[in-house]
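Incident log, structure service

09:12 report received: a user says their structure output differs between two submissions of the same chain.
09:20 pulled the input from the user's history:
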Amino acid sequence: MWDGGSEAAPAGPPPLPPAPAPAPAATRAMSWAPAGGSAPEIIGHLQENYYNLCVEKSQKINYFILHKLQEVDKEIEKGLEGLTLNIAGNSCLMPVERVTGEDFWILSRILKKNLYINGLDVRYNLISDVGAYYAARLLQKQHKLIYLNLMFNDIGPEGGELIAKALHKNTTLKYLRMTGNKIENKGGMFFAAMLQINSSLEKLDLGDCDLEESTVHLGHMLKENHCLVELHMCKHNIKNCGIKQLCDALYLNGSLRYLDVSCNKITRDGMVYLADVLKTNTTLEVLDLSFNRIENAGAKYLSETLASHNRSLKALSVVSNNIEGEGLVALSQSMKINPTLSNVYIWGNKFDEATCVAYSELMQMGRLKPDNTDVEAFVVDGHVYLAEVSNGLKKHYYWRPTYGAACRHSANAGFTLVPVGGHL
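09:34 re-ran on a clean worker, output below:
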């Protein structure tokens, strides 16, 4: 099997299609241009390299990429290093021509030896398995890259396999987002195997990748891996037996600080295992259980452990878990005893007046700060109610606001509480 180190394309993975015949000069000159109608002036080193390489390889020039390279060239001219090249395909602030696998081939060529860029964000593009092949090559050749965001790029199982195998030998990448690429169980197994070998990756998102009950393999990985700090497993169809397998692994894992198992099928019975492991686990700091169905009983299991044993968990999200007043009040009571738990997110459950009063009191006494929860209290005709506020563990994880900062601490508390390397 290919290990990513060879220059020759393997027989299995999809190589880049043969270069098309040279297009007429007028067509080659511009595939997309800003609203003004003219192409941006070629002023920087990266821009010049990209433009010249496209012409040399008879590849259509993507002027969205050219514009983004211009921004980075200006930063490099200021003497800045450790830059992230952001070519996100979901920008609503300017026209976008989405990056294809062929575009990524050219892009990877100019980034391979660049010393100024250590982050690459190509989310919401169309690089597919062709681009994944060149992303894997880039991971083998570029020894500065610590952040790679490939979310929602039509990468399938074969592309997932290539990227996972490239990380067997990579010692620099710290943060990888594969979110929304349908790598399925086949691709997921290669990532689980890779994580038993790789000793540098700290943050990994495999959410919404069409993995089903991946906990057997990822559980084995967590027993062996002592470097991974953050793991996202949303939409993995995890049931109670799956959360048990994860919990068995967490007894032996001493590094994981952020676990996201949102949007699964975990019920109150699964909380028995999780509450038990939290009695002895001293590393887990952020736990996202949003959009499961733990109900009152599950919330009470967690509350009892948080009140009597655990003193490491800082943030807990139980958004939309069919919890009623009894369970929500129990969580609020545990916060009065537990001095460590600072962030609690409860919107989408079934509030009664006792719930509203309990969380209003927590906020009034200063135990629960307004920025650390997704509700705020208000009074109408002498009755207390709770309204939703725009806070959470990862509010801007899938999209960026059209104005203002996308990394507000209150809206993205998970990443504030568990930072990994600079801006990651």
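09:41 both user submissions now match this output. Likely a transient worker issue. Closing.
09:42 reviewer note: The chain has 14 helices and twelve strands. The CA atoms of residues 293 and 321 lie 4 Å apart.
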